[in-house]
Amino acid sequence: MRKKHNQTQDKILILFVMAHAGFFRNFEQTIAELLALGFHVHVHFSKEHETIKLDDYDLLKSPIINSLTVSLSNTDIASNVHRSVRKARIIRDIIHYSRPQLRDASDLQARFARLQKKDALTTESRSSLQRIFNKAPERLKSSIEWVLNKYESIKSPHSESVDIIKKIKPDYLIVTPLVNFASREIDFVKAAGAKKIPTLLATASWDNLTNKGRLMVQPDHVAVWNLEMQQEAIDLHHVPKEKIWITGAPVFDTWFNRKVSRNREEFCKLLGFNPTRPIIVYVCSSLSITGKKENGIVKAWRKAISVCGNRLLTKANFLIRPHPMGLREWWDISSTDNSHIGEFRGAKVWPLNLKHPTTEEGRADFFDTLYHADVIVGLNTSTMIEAAILSKPVLTFLDHSAQDSQTGNLHFKYLEKSKFIRVANNLNEHIDHIIETLTNKNDVQACKDFITQFIRPYGKTVSASSKLVDFICDNIEQKKNIKLRVNPPMQVNTKEKIQTDGDYFIETVNQSQIRSLQLNQIFPGIEKQSLEIGAIDPDTAHANHVDMLYVCAVARHIRAREIFEFGTYLGRTTYHLALSQDAKNVYTLDLNPLENHSDKKLGRAVKSVHQLGLQGCFFRNHSGECVVHQLHGDSRTFDYTPYLNLMDFIFIDGGHSYELIQNDTLQAFKMLKPGGVIIWHDFAAKSRDVVTFAKEFTSSRPLFWVRQTSLLIYVDGINPMTHEAPVLPYARSVLKPEI
User: Is 391 in contact with 401 (CB distance < 8 Å)?
Assistant: First the structure.
């Protein structure tokens, strides 16, 4: 009898404490990758966000959501800690803002005074201490801070954070942003440290280390985007260099290699634009940067452009994209019911029902706006960075009522000193920059340089989320002395190895949560599907005809429209998948045969296919080719962003090493639609790594195995262990009943 495993047995639990649901967007892809790797992730929000809820995120619709749990603090932890501790933290923030690096940051100073909690220290006391510390020697300030730090370390964390740690029992704690004024995450780090639980600060944004408070506790590690932020962590927060991980910026991963959802004509029709004229997009900054001044700034900007006298510019299409947190500035302008497009000083304001880009629809609108823009203008917003990812020209100007929000913020210097953004001292100079940009080619190389220095320091193709997950996995392995990955088995050319592999396969089937059924027990009625046999060619010694026909039969049975295949090879399966009358797009991913792959262990057959130009030969010049999209790249570094949550059916038949099958599975779950199907090939004794992966993967997620094939199947929404499979009249148990 098959042994049933506890689905939570040996599962590593990661507690991710965030200030509010707005930070979930910054690490959505990181969390998705952790879930797909088999971790359980519990997200705890310290407080509610005024507009963003967890329900706004597409991740909730993912098939891996059953390993994600969420909670919200019942109290304001920061306000309920002892008054003396709160006072000590405020004084440390005052010292922090008296340091030479921050003393002249006028906007940050004003923001600190505005946001600092007043209940533990009065405004008058804070101002008085600020004046004293501004004049005090650095050595004296460091001594006082050392004493306050020691005092913090001996005070117990807030009881709610202790209770949550005790209840959830995490193996690992991640917090963000931790540096907020009166941060609620401080006590979680202290509570976890007391339990010897490894802790990580994951830096959420490019300004977190400069425009917020002092780091009150030192976690075990701090993840930052790049070398510049590493230096900020060292200089401003005294984080030891050896504790800092450089990962890149996970929040921007979703925009790399994404495809536009509307062409220029469709986008212009939506907004009432003339597609033959330039599109100039003004992207608004957050209220924390401009307050309620930006409406007036845009008004002055539009007036200056309207009287500049340049016909190309005055006749251009103008689009204003509000910030999700600053919509009230624009709600009093006229708008239509269906598209939420308003008119302001000859410019379109869209969308007026704007939310943060947490859903596929929201991301599409945002991406299309940047993609079709000929010029992008902003003051100080991360959208300017996202524009650089698309290699778009970005312009800004300094002569306005919120200038301090640029020059008075340390993080603006990264834009100012980069070559991809043009900074004008006044509106006249700015208008000249727009005209020059519209008539000259944009400096694409400057955008690329900024991205590789600031956003993806390991290279444009290396996902920051994946890099962060790699660091987390390695750290957990070291701290808990466990193995999260299995190295490929040693290759031994003996009869004993063959027997061992066979025994190992049988053991995996019998002792894992793998349920063996006939195909029509998993998909009743599938036997009525008819398929062509045109791609079956026994001359190539291809032995998996039944497997291939079963795969295609499942795709047709569920009427899959969007299909993704890992591993093209000759294109047999691709050919059959594309012939389905329901198939709209069949994406097939494989290595580019024209590139050098000497660093990879490719089999002789694969090398021959590359050398002879036979990749995809079965579907080339055939009727189904029109729906096939040949994609090229290494599946470990390929950007799957355009395909997230879109696929009805995914077939995993690429590389069969443990690393590749694990990676392809992770990506497949991120691409799968609710109700979709994933099929793995080569689950057989000969493929030890595939069997090992299945053994570990099914400890938390059961799968079907189609009897007498090498196919494993995942059907979203169906638990194989409780699935009521019909008894077939010709089943072996019926024809040969046990005595």
Answer: no
| Tens digit of each residue's pLDDT (9 = 90 or more) over 226-261 | 999 999 999 989 999 999 999 999 999 999 988 899
User: What is the rounded CA–CA span in Å between residue 204 and residue 185?
Assistant: 14
Q: Which H or E element spans position 246?
A: strand 244-246
pLDDT given at position 368 = 95
Residue 504, CA atoms < 13 Å, CB-side half-sphere:
21
Residue type present at position 468: L
Please name which of 405, 372, 406, 376 lies closest in space to residue 388, comparing C-alpha atoms.
Answer: 376
CB-CB neighbours of 309 under 10 Å: 8
What is residue 301's predicted lDDT score, i.e. its pLDDT?
94
Q: How far is CA 413 from CA 231, 289, 622, in A?
A: 14, 14, 55
Residue 193: alpha-carbon gap to chain centroid: 28
CA atoms of 93 and 112, how far apart (whole Å) = 9
> What are the angstrom distances between the C-alpha of 554 and each of 519, 577, 616, 666, 676?
9, 10, 21, 21, 11
Q: How far apart are CA 703 and CA 731, in angstroms?
A: 21
Q: Look-up: residue for tokens 């002569």?
A: 399
At 646, list the tokens.
Answer: 């879109």
Question: Is the separation of the CB atoms in 225 and 246 below 8 Å?
Answer: yes
**pLDDT tens string 524-546:** 999 888 887 765 655 544 445 78
**Residue labelled with tokens 């401009």:** 290
Residue partners of 413: CB distance under 8 A and separation at least 6: none
* Preceding amide of 393 cis, omega within 30: no
Helix 688-697 vs helix 658-671: crossing angle, to nearest 10: 50
Please report the DSSP string for 659-713 in residue order. HHHHHHHHHHHHHEEEEEEEEE---STT-HHHHHHHHHHTTTS-EEEETTSS-EE
- Record the tokens describing residue 22, joined without a space: 């707005």
pLDDT tens-digit map of 205-214: 988 888 788 8
- According to DSSP, the residues that pair with 43 across neighbouring strands are 16, 70
End-to-end CA distance of the chain: 17
Q: Measured between alpha carbons, how far is 591 from 597 in angstroms, rounded to an integer?
A: 8
List the beta bridge partners of residue 588. 565, 630
> If we measure between CA atoms, which residue out of 555, 548, 519 comes closest to residue 534?
548
Give 260's Cβ-side CA count (13 Å radius). 13
Residue 587 CA, distance from chain mean position: 22
Q: Give CA–CA dist 475/424, Å, rounded.
A: 45
The token pair at 218 is: 């030192």
Could you tell me where the DSSP H helices lie in 376-463? 383-389, 404-407, 412-417, 427-439, 444-450
Task: For residue 435, give the DSSP letter.
Answer: H
* C-alpha dihedral (718, 724, 727, 728), degrees to nearest 10: -20
Q: Is there a contact between 409 and 207 (Cβ–Cβ < 8 Å)?
A: yes
Within the chain, what is the greatest distance between any pair of CA atoms?
97
Q: What pLDDT, in 10s, does the model give residues 88-141?
A: 888 888 888 888 877 666 666 666 766 665 666 777 887 888 888 888 888 898
Residue 377 CB contacts under 8 Å (≥ 6 apart), including other chains = 280, 281, 282, 283, 301, 394, 395, 396, 430, 434
Q: Give the C-alpha separation, 665 to 280, whole Å.
A: 41
Of 567, 523, 572, nearest in space to 549 by CA: 572
691 and 659 Cβ atoms separated by less than 8 Å? no
β-pairing, 672-680 vs 712-715, is antiparallel
